[in-house]
Amino acid sequence: MARTAGSHSDITGPRVAQAALRLFARHGYAAVSMRQIAAEVGVQAGALYNYTPDKQSLLFDLMRGHMDELLAARATAPAPGDPVASLEGFTRFHIRFHLERPDAVFVSYMELRNLTPDNFATIEGLRRAYEDELEGILRAGVAAGVFAVADTKITTLAVIAMLTGVTTWYRTGGRLNVAQVETIYWDMVRKAVAG
Amino acid sequence: MARTAGSHSDITGPRVAQAALRLFARHGYAAVSMRQIAAEVGVQAGALYNYTPDKQSLLFDLMRGHMDELLAARATAPAPGDPVASLEGFTRFHIRFHLERPDAVFVSYMELRNLTPDNFATIEGLRRAYEDELEGILRAGVAAGVFAVADTKITTLAVIAMLTGVTTWYRTGGRLNVAQVETIYWDMVRKAVAG
DNA sequence: GTCTATAAGTAGATAGAC
DNA sequence: GTCTATCTACTTATAGAC
Q1: Sorting pLDDT into bands at 50, 70 and 90, what band is B8?
Q2: Which residues of chain B (67-126) touch nucleic strand C at CB < 7 A?
Q3: How far is Cα A111 from Cα B88, in angstroms, rounded to an integer?
Q4: Domains and CATH numbers, chain B
Q5: Closest Cα to residue A22, out of A56, A55, A62?
């Protein structure tokens, strides 16, 4: 069947999400208008509402998609029995995953306060599930006597903050490639929790 | 001299800045209207323009004030000759200073992209000056053979990201006081850069 | 599925009375 | 110094033609 002239549902949908992600990352959710998103896609503002019920859903779907992807990718990563190997795996995974999608990371971190309470609770739950992965590794290492940390929860948050910070300065094509960055950060993490 | 009825320049000015800081921290610069700020102060929107030429200046003055305070406080801190003692001093200073003013920290970190290019360059310069303090300590420690880090610049950014992250979870009146938090983070920093 | 037109409301900023 | 009123522009979202 021939489509109606000007009908592009299957390609416009992803383009709306991409444009929203890009613009939210650059200027912030509240500072971006539906008209700007539409202009980036190349349609009029009204057409966006074929793809999202409202602006809030656009933000929430981006953030939930990012967190789902994060947890799914983590679930398929190898899980060594050794706590040190597990921690190295987590560190390298976290850096690589986050450097591969800087816009989604930025939006997911900066726009939490622009989510409705229900949507915030959902994203927050996914974030905690991810943190719990790391805390489990630290607990296992402490139990095994290979890690010495004062407080596993605080160490978890400190390590994640340090690792995620890489997205604020890393630029593709710069002095270091991702593998080198991973190694530098792993060196710091390894020593910071060492017994 | 008696003041004109309803004239409160000396107290309204600081109240405008306080209200703007509080609201920008909670909801974000772009999401806060001048009318909301005025309502928080208890005046009408037009009256705000006696204290700021525009909304952008309100943001910039808050951020510049925060950075000036940070650098001034740091300048009066003791500067031990020993790199390890210097690093401990920096770590404890950073955590204490940031935990004492969570709203200003949050705004200064999250609203960088809402500054005009000129204003951004100014704030960025102050931020780099602060980072250079830490990098100098790390360089001195590496030169003295007491620190072993792969890259002083990256380590600087990693340490600051880790330390600033404390503001995302610390709440006054919680399980730990500031001194205990300082000690936990100092333990991680000390080990992470150890030779 | 996309368009134009529009509703209903809010934005930053200013003018002039008091 | 603060108020009310207002200007101009822009906001999200919807209705209906094509």
Answers
A1: confident
A2: none
A3: 33
A4: 9-52 (1.10.10.60), 56-193 (1.10.357.10)
A5: A62
